[in-house]
Design a protein that fits this description.
Blueprint: H1 3-31, H2 39-59, H3 76-98, H4 104-136, H5 140-143, H6 145-164, H7 174-192
Helix pairs in contact: 1-2, 1-3, 3-4, 4-6, 4-7, 6-7
Keywords: Membrane, Transmembrane, Transmembrane helix
Transmembrane segments: 6-25, 76-98, 104-129, 173-193
GO cellular component, one term: membrane
């Protein structure tokens, strides 16, 4: 690729990654039933709400004789939008990197792989933030709304890490173990792809 195409490829990749991170954060926080009034949830919904809001209102629309159903723990509109964004992402990246549309089988393969890689990357960065803030300010969770969200998202991984290696002399290795495991999985998936797009 030329310099201009390389820069365009990078920018497009970053934009799609940020969009997917927001969508995955919304899906994960819905799964953990974070209050809609929480500042982090409000910020995410303000960004993705204009797209997903109308879809949810259609799904939740009242019908005569039926009570309105509460929001599901699983954000199906969010997941559907993630798949659509993934398809558009790899169509755009394929056009930039190879000057043409990728075969449908390749696009499907990349989408499936990225549906695993993107949430794992999100959890990796959440763990990294948790580790850094635990050193900088151990009480960050109580002082910052984002701290509560980071802990909420990463607590299941921390518990899994404790099953592998318990605390040693008061030092918690669980975040580091889980970060290494996540990175190994994502690198393996990326290296297994036929083209370096994931």
């Amino acid at each position: 690729m030329t310099g201009l195409l390389t820069a365009a490829y990078f920018l497009v990749s970053v934009i799609f990654t940020l969009i997917l991170f927001l969508l995955w954060a919304r899906v994960i926080l819905r799964y953990f039933r974070l209050s809609p009034l929480h500042p982090v949830n409000q910020s995410i919904n303000a960004l993705v709400g204009p797209v997903l809001g109308p879809i949810e209102r259609m799904i939740q629309q009242d019908t005569p004789g039926k009570t309105r159903k509460p929001l599901s723990q699983y954000d199906w509109p969010g997941l559907a939008l993630i798949v659509v964004v993934e398809i558009i992402k790899f169509i755009c990246l394929g056009l930039l990197a190879y000057g043409g549309l990728l075969p449908v089988s390749f696009i499907l393969l990349f989408v499936i792989a990225d549906l695993v890689v993107q949430p794992l990357n999100l959890m990796f960065f959440a763990l990294l933030i948790r580790v850094i803030m635990s050193w900088v300010n151990p009480h960050w969770e109580q002082q910052n709304p984002a701290g509560y969200v980071v802990n909420l998202m990463t607590n299941p991984l921390i518990r899994l890490g404790h099953r592998i290696i318990p605390n040693v002399s008061g030092f918690d290795f669980a975040p580091y173990i889980m970060m290494v495991m996540i990175k190994v999985i994502t690198l393996f998936i990326s290296a297994s792809m036929p083209l370096p797009l994931v």
